[in-house]
Write a structure and sequence with these properties.
Largest sheet of chain A: 9 strands, mixed
Distance between the termini of chain A: 36 Å
Oligomer: homodimer
Strand order of the largest sheet of chain A: 1-2-6-5-4-3-7-8-9
Order of helices and strands of chain A: HHHHEEEHEHEHEHEHEHEHHEHHEE
Shape of chain A: globular
Strand content of chain A: 5-15%
Structural class of chain A: alpha/beta
Number of helices of chain A: 14
Helix content of chain A: 40-55%
Mean pLDDT of chain A: 91
């Protein structure tokens, strides 16, 4: 990918209102980041909503800032982009990476769990991480307090590779107590990864995007100590939706910190006591699930979609089919008697207008807002 | 069943060398306990080993002793004999019962586990037992220290029914510290059950027979805290072989007392935190497994097997087929070109001679001794 195209994609990714799914659709539609940037005013003429890319100088400043930290951008479509992330419907358009960027395509296992973990839970996470790295896997987690930090420490102490996915900007370590751990991960052969622009203060609302990257990077996810309705369970659900294996460490029913992990086992997660339990059940590649086939075979696509001719009223017909209940894109095409490329084209505009949002499983729904 | 026939069966059951399987086969062959007693010398003429029933006076003394304790015998073939025990290949010929004999045919769940249980494990066993009895089930266990005792206490404290199966004579409470618990179970609407004659000192070698009765009485068995290779796991295996549901309470991988129960879950036992987990997975009747169909449809059989004519050498042919590796009775019949009744008749004699022993799944093997 040429430096100019990388720059264009970074600029497109940093455009307000262009999320990961829209980014992917724009590149698929227009063939390149540069072409997609050029096409934004055209979309605006149909959607009534202009997405203005940030000034080039702002993007250059972010690039220089990351270079000063010793980091690199990894852009969707570049070689070295983690192949398992390409199975997501909404792969991150851009990842900022500190440390060894070459380990991101390696086989990884996630180890996540409660922030308010018990000493026993932290010890289990450390031992699991050590065992997994000794088997040649990288251990991926979210740099949070408790289980996440223990997993990173366990990998480092075993001289293994570990990958931290953070929610805020890569220059804003969070929590502050783990700033040293983040630096150590980057310095000792691991990698720190963020989808957020430099300088983004980490906030709770960024956690779902962080969790989907953890789930998307790994072949399997181990949940150690998760209370009922905790964030780790959301990551586990995302991993299942992405056809990854889910593992959970059991605990006493008297310990509320184990309610979520026990429930995962009840629902079919592999009961896990040691790294061997993970290794025995880890596939070479994600299982193929009907819900979730690889979204991106070649990226950018080898052939651009043919120009489509929209008839007046087609857009309204499509929008009418879409309510707050998710509906399959295939169903829309069939029920509107429109071709798939026409429906895709209309949906891209509807997404960019903010009326419609994409959902897993090639489904769409009216935006909540 | 007439008092004379009950007496004959009790006497046959108390005959040295006549175990549960041989008892069942003798009744099936001869139609009654009295006829089986009469036939013992005839078997001896073929096997060279005479099984002498105890003098009637000895049996009368045991009956009087049990009556003095306020107990009753429940004899295989009597109404009120627990129907699920009839699914075993080796149902106990006789049970001595203290307390309410009428609860034995009721739906039961077993709760068993480690003697050296943690305080948490005992609390879980108590709560499970309370919840199960409140749902109308009787809770069955083995009166041992730790989890067993906690299960009995939990049921009693919830004003529920509980059944203790003991390994020694019913007049020899073991461990001594649970003598009061045994008396309370019998006095508060529960039952204490033993297959052993009165006065039998409990020994470790009796535990497998005790465990098979626990497994045989229940629709489901919950294992709370079981170390690797512990007795509770043997009971769980017996329950599986008898097509009963197996449940296990998870625990931390750092606690060796949970290694066995976690392993049961890994092998497919229902992960169990509360009584609801049991109730949601408890069938009305045991699952039908190919390995283990009901052995006894009508007992005693409505029709006696026809007299069989043994040719010289048939017995030797059958014995030649039987090595230390278990072999199916059906295979023996086919490979010896003998009818099933002839093979059954020969096997009964071989068992009574001590050369051959019966195994689950209608298989036999050379006796180890």
């Amino acid at each position: 990918m040429s430096p100019a195209e990388s720059f264009a994609r970074l600029r497109l990714a940093r455009t307000d209102g262009i999320g990961p799914t829209t980014f992917r659709r724009l590149i698929e539609r227009h063939g390149s980041g540069a072409a997609a940037l050029d096409a934004l005013p055209g979309h605006a003429s149909r959607t009534g909503r202009l997405h203005s890319p940030p000034p080039s100088g702002e993007v250059e400043r972010e690039m220089a800032g990351l270079a000063r930290l010793g980091g690199h951008f990894l852009i969707l479509g570049q070689p070295g982009y983690p192949p398992l992330l390409l199975l997501l419907e909404d792969p991150p358009p851009v990842l900022a990476v500190l440390g060894d960027i070459t380990i991101l395509p390696r086989r990884q296992v996630g180890v996540v769990g409660a922030r308010a973990a018990s000493a026993g839970g932290r010890r289990i996470a450390e031992e699991l991480a050590a065992g997994l790295t000794m088997a040649g896997l990288a251990v991926t987690s979210g740099l949070a307090r408790g289980i996440d930090a223990a997993a990173h420490f366990g990998a480092l102490n075993a001289h293994g590779r570990t990958i931290a996915v953070v929610a805020g900007g890569i220059d804003m370590p969070y929590p502050a107590e783990n700033a040293g751990l983040q630096a150590r991960i980057a310095a000792e052969g691991g990698a720190v990864v963020s989808e957020a622009p430099l300088g983004t203060a980490p906030q709770a609302r960024h956690l779902p995007r962080r969790n989907r990257i953890v789930a998307g990077l790994v072949l399997g996810l181990v949940v150690v100590e998760a209370a009922a309705r905790s964030g780790s369970l959301i990551t586990a659900r995302l991993a299942l939706e992405a056809s990854r294996e889910v593992f959970a460490v059991p605990g006493s029913p008297l310990d509320p910190r184990s309610a979520g992990s026990n429930d995962l086992i009840r629902q079919g997660a592999h009961l896990t006591e040691t790294a061997e339990d993970v290794l025995a059940n880890l596939p070479e590649t994600p299982r193929d699930m009907p819900l979730f086939r690889p979204r991106i075979a070649a990226f950018p696509p080898e052939e651009l979609p043919a120009e489509v001719e929209l008839a007046a009223g087609d857009s309204g017909k499509v929008l009418e089919m879409i309510g707050t209940t998710p509906v399959a894109v295939d169903d829309i095409a069939r029920r509107c008697h429109l071709s798939a490329p026409i429906v895709q084209s209309i949906l891209l505009d509807l997404e960019m207008s903010g009326l419609v949002e994409s959902l897993p499983g090639n489904r769409v729904a009216r935006s909540a807002g």
